[in-house]
Write a structure and sequence with these properties.
The complex is a heterodimer of chains A (146) and B (415). Helices cover 19% and strands 21% of the residues of chain A. Chain A is built from five helices and eight strands. Chain A is globular, with a radius of gyration of 15 Å. The chains are: A alpha+beta (146), B alpha/beta (415).
């Protein structure tokens, strides 16, 4: 299946992916209205130091430890996509404690949210990838370890 | 067609069902559930009292879970005996259930010490099950004075859940601090202070020695210190005992729980155990111990199910982890507090790491918990700290600490 992959050599550290993610998941039609003067809570996060930057989002693991660890049974994997039922999440953060990639962070309300590849929001494909100016984030099929 | 029997209907049982079905789509699965509820998440009972979830959302799996997985569930009946020669389990109503493979996933029960006068207290509760939470919900009134005996995870989550429902809450514990099983004294003091700021009163290093009932269902506790605490509602949360009796009946090895190997097999042929009733391998300890945490219950149940169905699954790398919040303050702990402690605490947040032989062995985080799973993975993978920039990530967990090659594997490949 297609997943989001990162080419850190190409990442400019511009954080546009974070804004595109937050907008795509805002449910709003106007980006300025959705994001202007607001603290954003994206599902992808740029990490880095003065030498290197890269964007981190859910790896949609083959055997996701978050699914097995969620105390509310709120995280599940279907058709290759790891999803969260936010109505069941109680914000205990056990998924944050077990995700080896540090890919999960709560939303503004303290309830967990995560990358679901934009398949069900207004974007329809990963907004982080679509908006990346330097193709540092790609959405493609890869078979084994790169 | 294989005949699978699961005694218990909690998270380990759900994991077992899903483990079996990942290998065998056809075998018959029977689940014996002492509680009359659809599989639900026990740690959510405090969130229920707080109003952060409800009976519907507490269901660990959807309404069609048993049907979709072809399970027959027998609700409201206890398994009381098992025969490893006939390979059958007997229920309290006399029904005998045969099995080809059995998983004992019966959980644990509250341990209530024999306090003098305790039996006379009518408004006395445990805090383990959904029925306990429902009973407390009915008993606690706006002006109720609640005494909770036990300042472990169960007692403190109960205190949080009841705070807005009760008049006052006092928590006592014989130990000299709160959460003594997962926090050191400094960290426990931080958490206790936060709870006190949120209206919970503590009596640590003190416990009830005698109870006197009043005429309204409550009573008074005479404490070891000589003080007296009057209460309307009493919750005992002192500890738990594994429900490992069936395994013992069959001649299986039982310590604090039913002893299992890394395949979740007991020493009785075709009999497995998983979850809070099992004593499995703890990699941080290098020995067996009951790891009574929900993720472990699921994983043990799943591994048991895979093996029961003829697949192969091993759990050789489990260790304790806890992620718990109280009134907005998050606490995460993992592994063993073993070796040299290095600390990066500031601004009211605590970050303590325990390093031994060049490996991260455990940690305690209070307040700032972002990306903590990166630390957990260092323990799980036994990553030599010399190969990562640990000095950098003690302040803030980040994938920057790994080499570019390592990051390419993590973020450029299928994982």
């Amino acid at each position: 299946m297609k997943r989001v992959y990162v080419n850190e050599e190409w990442c400019l550290g511009c954080h546009l992916c974070e804004y595109n993610c937050a907008f795509a998941n805002s449910g709003m039609k106007d980006m300025a209205f959705a994001l202007k003067d607001k603290k954003i809570f994206p599902r992808i996060h740029v990490e880095g130091d003065d030498k290197i930057t890269f964007a981190v989002s859910c790896r949609h693991c083959e055997d996701p430890i978050c699914v097995k660890s969620c105390i509310a049974g709120a995280i599940s994997k279907k058709d290759g996509v790891v999803k969260i039922d936010r109505s069941k999440c109680v914000g205990c953060l056990t998924c944050v404690l077990v995700c080896p990639y540090g890919a999960l962070a709560p939303g503004e309300d303290g309830i967990m949210q995560k990358c679901e590849l934009c398949l069900e929001n207004s974007c329809g494909e990963p907004a982080c990838v679509k908006g990346c100016p330097n193709h540092a984030i790609v959405y493609e099929e890869r078979s084994d370890q790169a | 067609m294989k005949n699978y029997l699961i005694v218990g209907n909690g998270i380990a049982a759900a994991g077992c069902v899903e483990g079996i079905r990942s290998v065998d789509p056809d075998g018959a699965i029977t689940v014996v559930s002492e509680e009359k509820h659809h599989v639900y998440s026990r740690p959510l009972i405090s969130y229920y009292l707080e109003g952060k979830t409800d009976l519907e959302r507490m269901k660990y799996r959807g309404d069609s879970f048993y049907e979709e997985n072809g399970c027959r569930v027998i609700f409201g009946v206890r398994a009381i005996a098992a025969d490893p020669v006939l390979k059958q389990v007997t229920l309290e109503d006399g029904t005998a259930l045969p099995y080809d493979a059995l998983c004992v996933a019966a959980g644990s029960r509250p341990f209530v010490p024999p306090f003098e006068g305790l039996e006379e207290i009518k408004n006395r509760f445990s805090f383990m099950t959904l029925d306990d939470a429902l009973a407390l919900e009915a008993a606690v009134k706006k002006n109720s004075r609640v005494l909770i005996v036990g300042a472990g995870l169960i007692g403190l989550k109960c205190a949080e859940g009841l705070r807005d429902r009760a008049g006052s809450i006092v928590v006592c514990d014989l130990a000299d601090r709160v959460l003594s099983s997962i926090l050191d004294p400094d960290c426990a003091a931080v958490v206790q202070k936060h709870l006190e700021n949120n209206g919970i009163e503590f009596m640590v290093g003190d416990t009830a020695v005698k109870f006197t009932a009043d005429s309204r269902g409550g009573g008074a506790a005479l404490m070891k210190s000589g003080r007296t605490v009057d209460f309307d509602v009493l919750v005992t949360a002192v500890g738990v005992r594994a429900n490992s009796g069936l395994v013992k009946d069959m001649g299986g090895s039982v310590n604090r729980g039913a002893v299992v190997n890394t395949r979740m097999e007991t020493n009785v042929p075709s009999v497995y155990a998983a979850g809070d009733c099992a004593e499995g391998y703890d990699a941080s300890l290098g020995a067996n111990r009951v790891l009574a945490i929900l993720p472990n219950a699921y994983m043990q149940g799943h591994a048991a199910g895979v093996n029961m169905a003829g697949g192969s699954a091993e759990l050789a790398n489990s260790f304790p982890i806890n992620s718990v919040g109280f009134f907005g303050l998050h606490i995460m702990t993992a592994g063993a507090y073993d070796g040299e402690m290095t600390e990066e605490s500031r601004d009211g947040s605590v970050r303590r790491f325990f390093v031994k032989d060049g490996l991260l062995r455990g940690f305690i985080l209070i307040g700032s918990t972002e990306r903590a799973g990166i630390y957990t993975s260092l323990i799980r993978e036994k990553t030599p700290l010399a190969s990562v920039d640990f000095g950098l990530i003690k302040n803030s967990a980040s994938n920057v600490a790994f080499s570019p090659d390592e990051r390419r594997k993590k973020f450029g490949g299928v994982v």
